[in-house]
Amino acid sequence: MNISESKRLFAKAQDFIPGGVNSPVRAFRAVGGDPIFIKKASGAFIYDENDNAYIEMINSWGPMILGHNHPIIRESVIQAMESGTSFGAPTAREIEIAELIISVVPSVEKVRMVNSGTEATMSAIRVARGYTGKDKIIKMIGHYHGHGDSFLIAAGSGAMTMGQPDSPGVTAGTAKDTLLAPYNDLEAIEELVRLNKGEIAALILEPVPGNMGLAIPMPGYLEGLREICNREGIVLIFDEVMTGFRLAPGGAQELYGVTPDMTTLGKIIGGGMPVGAYGGRKEIMDFVSPSGPVYQAGTLSGNPIAMAAGLAMLKYLQSHPETYGQLLNIGRKVSEGIKKINLELGYDYTVNQVGSMYSLFFTDQPVTDFESAKQADTGLFGKYFQAMLQRGVYLAPSQFESLFLSTALTDELIDKILEAHRESMIEIHKN
Ligand code: PMP
């Protein structure tokens, strides 16, 4: 495969952009080789600068649930553009998208739009702190909530991939207010609560974490967190930036029937534009300025073009509820196909899947938390990633990420993915 243009661009990019990329995982550091530079994307495919086509398994890290450049989103954006790109003043579309999110996401009674998942989680914990008058938060080891200071402590995703789960530049003062617990371990939460009685404002987690690779909540775990937070007056925040509108219309909270106090959203609600949101119970959200004392603002928040893209996406999902059955089918076909091929070849690697998200871990042990995820053979993953890329399948360039499938994957394309998987598994285990 000729990727000469990507190589040329990456060499040049490194002179002007730190590491040559605007977000670390894109640099392919964890898997070796040069990143491919993307020229365009359509449906199930992305195309690099040499016009090679790849089947998409990341889909912009989640937003492109219907595949790339979907006509309903494209047309909605083009139409919105006719009226201008930003006003910095309220618009009707913002009410429409807020109403739609509230009607679908169980925990959300009021919602504030922001510009990224990072802003959503940063703002949510500020509000939880303002509301409770307490400082400390609990986060799970290996979960990622964007690059806000409070979250860059034992963080997953790119931080884990780069081996920098704790970032220089985060002050000791900030770090001391972030308490850490392993995922899927209620006893650890009980212990933290005991040791920090009456001092914890919020517990934030990815209900179905995708940022240490995909892990699954054990039966009773989310319910247990809900009970502890009720008992202790802790604001329970589900970070559904990845899972919102993907695992079910109402996200993981709908799928597992556990309603948090606050929810953060992103990705799908922007239809590929830079959008995030945080929402929750009215009494908490009324603490947000200008109705309450907790300050949070944004020049481009609720941007008309971003709202048009997000609304087109959410309205489509609302009027096509069958999408979720399709996504589940696709997720099952791909992940079960992979498991079957692995077993035929004699490899009992762990595959975690929920709906249209899955991870193949290069370990035969179950992956339920950060420690078990770290047991995976990242060297072997790197070889697998390259072997799949050579065969035209674009995976997330790290063992510690989930894949995000779209409805654009036909049965024929799934067969191609599985064929590439079989060949890649044979190739990487050759010596
Ligand atoms: N929360 C979760 C669960 C995420 O997966 C991400 C990013 N992948 C974020 C927050 C941060 O979102 P953003 O990159 O838009 O700032």
Give the helix proportion (percent range): 25-40%
Record field, number of beta strands: 14
Give the overall pLDDT as a whole number: 97
Bound molecules: 4'-deoxy-4'-aminopyridoxal-5'-phosphate
The CATH superfamily of the largest domain appears as: Type I PLP-dependent aspartate aminotransferase-like (Major domain)
Overall radius of gyration: 21 Å
Number of continuous helical runs: 15
Percentage of residues in DSSP E strands: 5-15%
> What is the domain tally?
2
Q: Spell out the helices and strands N to C.
A: HEEEHHEHEHHEHEHEHEEHHHEEHHEEH
| CATH architecture name of the largest domain | 3-Layer(aba) Sandwich
Stretches with pLDDT under 50, minimum 5 residues:
none
Explained architecture:
It is built from 15 helices and 14 strands. Helix 2 (71-81) packs antiparallel against helix 11 (304-319) and helix 3 (92-104) runs parallel beside helix 11 (304-319). Helix 9 links the parallel strand 8 and strand 9 (262-266). With 431 residues, it is of the alpha/beta class. The protein has two domains: 4-69 and 321-428, Alpha-Beta Complex (Aspartate Aminotransferase, domain 1), CATH 3.90.1150.10; 71-319, Aspartate Aminotransferase, domain 2 (3-Layer(aba) Sandwich). Helix content is 39%, strand content 14%. It has helices spanning 4-16, 71-81, 92-104, 117-132, 158-161, 172-175, 186-195, 221-232, 251-256, 282-285, 304-319, 322-345, 370-373, 378-390, 411-428; strands spanning 38-42, 45-48, 53-56, 110-114, 136-140, 178-181, 200-205, 235-239, 262-266, 276-280, 350-354, 357-361, 393-394, 403-404. The strands form three sheets. A seven-stranded mixed β-sheet has the order 4-10-9-8-7-5-6, with helices on both faces. It has a four-stranded mixed β-sheet with strand order 1-2-3-13. 4'-deoxy-4'-aminopyridoxal-5'-phosphate is lined by residues 61, 116-118, 121, 144-146, 157, 206, 211, 239, 241-242, 266, 276. GO terms for molecular function: glutamate-1-semialdehyde 2,1-aminomutase activity; pyridoxal phosphate binding; transaminase activity. Its cofactor is pyridoxal 5'-phosphate. This is Glutamate-1-semialdehyde 2,1-aminomutase. Pathway: Porphyrin-containing compound metabolism; protoporphyrin-IX biosynthesis; 5-aminolevulinate from L-glutamyl-tRNA(Glu): step 2/2.
